Amino acid sequence: MTSRKAKMDTVSIVQCKRWDCNQYIYDCSDRGHRSSGVSSPAISNHEDAATTPHHRYPNPGYIGSSSGFAIFNEVQSMSETPVDENVHSPFDPPAEMPVDTLEDQSILPRATHVLDRLYHIDIEQLAALILVWVDTGASLALAESFVLGCVHDMLEFSRLRRTAGFESGSLAQTRADAQQARLLSRNTCRPIVLTGNSTFDAYLGQMTGPNRRWETLGLFFVASAKAASEVEMFPALYANNDDGKKLAKSMTYLIDCCLELCLGFDCLNDLQLILQYEQFHTHSGIYGETSFRAWRIMGDLATSLVALGYHEKIDQQLSTTPQFVIELRKAIFARMYWADKALSVFMGRPPRILLAFCNFQVPNFRLESQAPYAELIDFVADTRCSAKFAVLKEQSLEVFRMRNPSDQMERADMIRYDLEQLWLELPAHFRLTTTLAASKGSPFVRDFLANQRLEYLHTHFLLGLTYLQKHPEPNEILLGVAGEMLSLIVEIILLRSKLVNSGTGWLWKVRLSAVNILNCMD
After folding, report:
1. Do 239 and 384 have their domain in common?
2. Three-state SS for 4?
3. 50 FRET partner, CA 20 to 30 A, in 206, 319, 331, 485?
4. 316 and 372 co-located in one domain
5. Do residues 38 and 157 share a domain?
6. 3-state DSSP call for residue 477?
7. Facing residues of 234 across strands?
8. CB atoms < 10 A from the CB of 81, how many?
9. Quick one: 295 and 394 in the same domain?
């Protein structure tokens, strides 16, 4: 009798907390399917949002099968008691953002501060700098497809603010900034609506123009920071590389402000995750991988990745998710998985994203537009290849830290065999088989070839460290790998003006490899 009563009490609780945890809680594509039967609409004003059906709270995100909520759902499915479909989860948000939300959470002052800073920035010249940078073949590794859209939108945003004619610091300008901050914040709180037929232009339309979001500004500032770091001189903004780095640092401050505003609304989505990754890459490039900023941001990245459930299988089971979004989410996982391993190895610290808890996926190759339709060397190719090497790096770290070393060398040999197979399975034009100076291709292609060769050699080097645990002196194989890495790094330094960042800058490559080489040859 007692057990039956307890079961009924549990069912009663579940009815109050009914929540389907067997899917991603934040599935904007599913929400778009419920709210519209047509292609992705670009919501252009606040009144349109009121017509969107009430949706479930986007956080806490992905909930696994061992969670308490999953158990509640299992009990719910066993109950014969009908459930009122109108009963919402206590985590559901109100249909509209309360008018005083921005003020209560001190968000409005921070938001208006960012907009006020724009009066002291030459948006037009920053846009011109980004275009010069993109013309070299460089871009943002994850946000490549958004860069130009954000640039053009920020130019329009700047033009509108300029034509308003408000005097800087005036009461009218302060009021206008507060109104604009509210609009940006409301747009940021809206989900990106997707259907199976959504196009990229429709997606972009939900973050530009009247739908402009804080993520849009953030990505523009990321591109500005990267461009200022990699374009040695741009007379309209800075005269030398040192001044360019100062400009890049000022841009990182605005990146941080925009991202904190986005995360403060507790509505995590693809755009914010992309912005988080690009923020990490910008910080690590400007302040160095040893900075606590980079390490903390990497922890935030891992948290957000798991919260959205992108460590689980991302496929086409959701018919309302367009293919380009599926590929984007695979790239998000692969990039973050690789960055986690690279930083963990460099710092000698435990990784945050472990393969044992992930469904490893990489985006599909893009093919050349003309015969023989070979795999294209681009950011997607770098993402795919680097993530595959990262898997073997994680396994190498596990072998290195084995508590029972009886079969340590055997496992290291197995990983080494997998590494050789991976290298041979790469398309022939992905493998650097000559000196970097003798290789053919654009500056981007050369940088890509150097990236993949270093990933291969660095994984070999990690496996060689296992040997050093049992022998006081490095063997010939380890010394040979270290020597080849050193030669390649020297070439990268000498040719750095003829390389274009294909995923990591030349300083990242040097720092990632040089420390280990010096330790080996000490």
Report:
1. no
2. helix
3. 319
4. no
5. no
6. helix
7. 238
8. 10
9. no
* 33, 36, 37, 39 alpha-carbon torsion, rounded to 10°: -90
Residue linked to tokens 């606590």: 292
Provide the angle, in degrees to the nearest 10, between the axes of the packed helices 292-307 and 270-287.
160
Phi and psi at 351, nearest 5°, equal: -70, 155
Q: What is the pLDDT of residues 71-128, one digit of tens each?
A: 555 555 555 544 444 433 333 444 445 444 555 557 888 899 999 999 889 999 999 9
**Token match 């290195």: residue?**
400
Do residues 328 and 344 touch, judged by C-beta distance below 8 A? no
Count the Cβ atoms, other than its own, within 10 Å of residue 469.
13
The pLDDT of residue 320 is 80
Tokens found for residue 125: 């010249």
Burial 353-371 (b: 16+ CB within 10 A, else e): bebeebeebbbeeeeeeee
Pair of tokens at residue 402? 């084995």
Same domain, 151 and 204: yes
Cis peptide leading into 372, omega within 30 of 0? Answer: yes
User: What's the token pair of residue 241?
Assistant: 């590389």
67 lies in the same domain as 123 = no
Q: Is residue 358 part of a domain?
A: no
For residues 279 and 136, state if they share a domain.
yes
pLDDT tens, residue by residue, 342-395: 999 888 899 999 999 999 999 999 888 777 788 999 999 999 999 999 999 999
Total structural domains within the chain: 3
Helix 506-521 vs helix 476-494: angle between axes, to the nearest 10 degrees? 150
Eight-state DSSP code of residue 209: G
How far is the C-alpha of 63 from the C-alpha of 67, rounded, in Å?
Answer: 7
pLDDT tens readout for residues 383-433: 999 999 999 999 999 998 887 777 888 899 999 999 999 999 999 999 999
**Contact between residue 19 and residue 91 where contact means Cβ atoms under 8 Å apart:** yes
Parent domain of 301: 99-329
In angstroms, rounded to a whole number, what is the distance separating the alpha carbons of residues 465 and 415? Answer: 13
Q: What is the dihedral of CA 355, 361, 367, 372, to 10 degrees?
A: 70
37 and 103 assigned to the same domain: no
Whether the pTM exceeds 0.90: the reply is no
